[in-house]
Amino acid sequence: MLGQAVRRFTTSAVRSSHYAEGPGNNLPFSVENKWRLLGMMVLFFGSGFAFPFIVVRHQILKK
Q1: CA atoms of 43 and 20, how far apart (whole Å)
Q2: Which stretches in the chain have pLDDT values below 50?
Q3: What pTM value is reported for the model?
Q4: DSSP one-letter string for 1-60
Q5: What is the membrane topology listed in the Swiss-Prot or TrEMBL record (predicted)?
């Protein structure tokens, strides 16, 4: 009984959503321009990769 109510609620929630469907429409960023996406990914992942090296350099140069 409870399972049926949950299933009815989830299907009605999906049906009443007003978002477009399809690949890339549920992401918080655009995937239309592949070069902009590449640049954003390089900045995002590159900053996380470079952070430890910057911290170590700062600690070495600190007096």
Answers
A1: 28
A2: none
A3: 0.55
A4: -HHHHHHHHHHHHHHT--PPPSTTTTSSS--S-HHHHHHHHHHHHHHHHHHHHHHHHHHH
A5: Single-pass membrane protein
